[in-house]
Amino acid sequence: MTDMKDYDLAFEAFLEGESYDAAAEALYDVASKAFEAGWRAAGGKLLPRRPTKEERFAFLRELLQHEK
User: Fold this and answer.
1) Rg over CA atoms, the chain
2) pLDDT tens-digit map of 31-55
3) Is residue 28 a contact partner of residue 53, using CB atoms and an 8 Å limit?
4) How far apart are CA 21 and CA 14, in angstroms?
5) How far is CA 15 from the centre of its chain?
6) How far apart are the first and last CA of the chain?
7) What does the alpha-carbon distance between residue 22 and residue 28 come to, in Å, rounded to a whole number?
8) DSSP state of 68
9) How far is CA 67 from CA 4, 7, 54, 58, in A?
């Protein structure tokens, strides 16, 4: 059981660190740009200003709260 506790503690420390933040930001950028490319290829129009990650997540949180 100690191995599991050590693993969980190490993983938690990783998730709270700058390395994870940088990796998560990079993955978000890749996913966002890929979606945008698909959106444009399907004939969708781009927004005049690209929303920030925080703006998009705030919008998604609001949508999820209305579904409850």
Assistant:
1) 17
2) 989 999 999 999 999 878 877 878 8
3) yes
4) 9
5) 13
6) 37
7) 10
8) -
9) 36, 35, 20, 15
